[in-house]
Amino acid sequence: MHTRQLGPFTVSAIGLGCMNLSHAYGVPPSPEQGERVLLAALDAGVTMFDTAALYGFGASETLVGRVLKPHRQKYTLASKGGMAGVAGDDGVVRRVIDGRPETVRRNCEDSLRRLQTDVIDLYYLHRWDKKVPIEESVGAMSRLVEEGKVRAIGLSEVSAQTLRRAHAVHPIAAVQTEYSLWTRNPEIAVLAACREIGAAFVAFSPVARGFLCDKLHDVASLADKDIRRGMPRFEPANFAANLKLLPGYRALAQEAGCTPAQLALAWLLHKGEDIIPIPGTTSVEHLREDLAAADVRLDASLMERLEAHINESTVQGNRYNAQSRAEVDTEEF
């Protein structure tokens, strides 16, 4: 497995995003299937596993902790706080963004218990709570580092300006944001800011929430609770327009001698040595397909044609709906 630098850690060039082992895309796999995926990733050389308190309201961390605890010295563990499930007066657990120092600390300590570990290697602020100065949230995270509960700090879905403010309080090792051929927002400013301060860039949803795998052709097939149903790009009219991009994209994958999913991941790997994609999957077969993307080579001509074919101008619909767009701090086209 090829490696890349993530703050103080040397990790596999492709990590594993653990969200959909318990969250987001309809009915999650069984714990047994989740265990098979995690162990297959470890056996294949993946040394970066990414989870969060939010995913399955703790279920993802619990799974990762149970399965990977015996192998804790073999991988870099990343998790996130500041956005988690909170039970309301009606007993229903809902997603809450809360960046207050006391909440960040509680989230971290809860994650440590679920993950069955003494320390989280890379701990992200999952969302900047705009009611709380970023300096206060990051200050709380820096104290977790001082106490040995966290080794390095990251941020998710933040702008270049917010990143610089945070970095002035404590060194930021990584920024995690959606990045793929069809979500190019990091190219506006945050990628450059990461390079300016020496932070790695971790790309989530690198295969465009499955779109660039060229296997989802009918949004009606999505489960009722699949979060993509609420995303503008997957609304029927926009999705029909976006589907027209796939034949040309498929042809480029054939030219590169790889699958569509591998092409999406190879493109990211070629965009910079500081970029680490973290695709997620519930299938061992798809996992192995994804990891083989590290061996795909793309020349400059193919990179240019790819970027001209799928970009912010050729894709229809925003990546998030209005409410979710208000919750993130990223620069938007």
TrEMBL record:
<dbReference type="GO" id="GO:0016491">
    <property type="term" value="F:oxidoreductase activity"/>
</dbReference>
<protein>
    <submittedName>
        <fullName>Aldo/keto reductase</fullName>
    </submittedName>
</protein>
<feature type="domain" description="NADP-dependent oxidoreductase">
    <location>
        <begin position="13"/>
        <end position="310"/>
    </location>
</feature>
<dbReference type="InterPro" id="IPR050791">
    <property type="entry name" value="Aldo-Keto_reductase"/>
</dbReference>
<dbReference type="Pfam" id="PF00248">
    <property type="entry name" value="Aldo_ket_red"/>
</dbReference>
<keyword id="KW-0560">Oxidoreductase</keyword>
<dbReference type="GO" id="GO:0005737">
    <property type="term" value="C:cytoplasm"/>
</dbReference>
<dbReference type="InterPro" id="IPR023210">
    <property type="entry name" value="NADP_OxRdtase_dom"/>
</dbReference>
<dbReference type="InterPro" id="IPR036812">
    <property type="entry name" value="NAD(P)_OxRdtase_dom_sf"/>
</dbReference>
